[in-house]
Amino acid sequence: MLNLNVPRVGFGTSPLGMPPGWAAGEPIEEGQALAALQYAFDHGIRFFDSAPSYGKGLAETRTGAFLRQVPRESVIVATKVGVDIRGETVRRDYSRDGVLRSLEGSLKRLQVDSVDILHVHDADDDAEQVLNETFPALAELRAQGVIKAIGAGMNQWQVPMRFAQQADFDCFLIAGRYTLLEQGALGFFDLCHQKGIAIFAAGIYNSGLLAKGAASTGVTYNYAPAPPEIIARVKAIEAICAEFGVPLHTAATQLPLSHPAVKAIIVGFQAASEVQACLDARQRTIPAVLWNRLREAGLLDAAAPVPLP
Q: Range of 43's domain?
């Protein structure tokens, strides 16, 4: 069980090590990255999630440059293990030594003495090793008070389902699998709620598709060009949102937080304007009839919890 008072919105730092808009080219300027972090902090966001693999350590380094300027006790910091970065070389490593080495590197880049949450990162094909070697190492760190919570950050829910059933995980970060576009992870989220395991819903805009809309150029789904059937589904959702004057981005921001297992959404930001857009979307009232219309049209799982007006 997660014994942390986690804010409802977390800053996903992956875009801080990426080019503007995730396009080709160089990462965003450091000044822009730090300005986005500071703006978020100034506007109440106190939860920052990173990973060594985000920009080969660059996202952690930039996050660390910000964290050293604020009281450590004022923020919750999460990062991940399972990726070993040495210069330009990046490789998977879920061994006990790999966990300790990864955490040591993250603490240096983040410029903190400890992190609150440590996730196993993208262990899609390494579940056995995670259960037998990675998790016991993390459990030692938790027992020693080095970390407060153990999680797993993944783009799927099937392996985390196994983790939830076979080990004492506190939380899971699930990217892109419980959104306005798809609710395939609903059963898993229900299980986590029953077991008292917290969920952090990331990738809530499905790689930007639900933020920009189906008509935007170069829209992606799962970090690849969106297929026609996905575009068609988003257009149908967008049309119903438009009937009630609700931006697609607003509905996409609010839906995941309605599930009782979801303690926070993790949103990747590159600019202050994106932070503000997310905060504004959370405050807007959505009429209940909009969710009913989506259900009637077969565009929303009938069992998915929805925001109260």
A: 9-296
The answer to whether position 70 is within a domain reads yes
Share of the chain above pLDDT 90, in %: 90
Q: Which residue among the candidates 39, 42, 49, 84 is catalytic per the annotation? A: 49
Q: What per-residue confidence (pLDDT) applies to 236? A: 98
Question: 54, 94, 178, 221: which is the annotated catalytic residue?
Answer: 54
The answer to whether the beta carbons of residues 279 and 9 sit under 8 Å apart is yes
What percent of the chain clears pLDDT 70, i.e. is strictly above it?
Answer: 100
What is the rounded average pLDDT for all residues in the chain?
A: 96
Which one from 39, 42, 56, 80 is the annotated catalytic residue?
A: 80
- Whether 39 is a known active-site residue: answer no
Note if 54 is an active site residue: yes
Q: CATH code at 155? A: 3.20.20.100
Write the CB contacts of 197 (distance below 8 Å, at least 6 apart in sequence): 1, 2, 164, 169, 170, 171, 172, 261
- Among residues 47, 13, 49, which one has the least CA distance to residue 28? 13
301 in any annotated domain: no
pLDDT surpassing 90 at residue 240? yes
Question: How many Å apart are CA 138 and CA 254, to the nearest integer?
Answer: 32
Whether 113 maps to a domain, the answer reads yes
Residue 286 lies in a domain: yes
- What total number of domains does the chain contain? 1
Does residue 49 carry a catalytic annotation? Answer: yes
- pLDDT value at residue 193: 98
Angle between helices 288-296 and 228-243 (to 10 degrees): 140
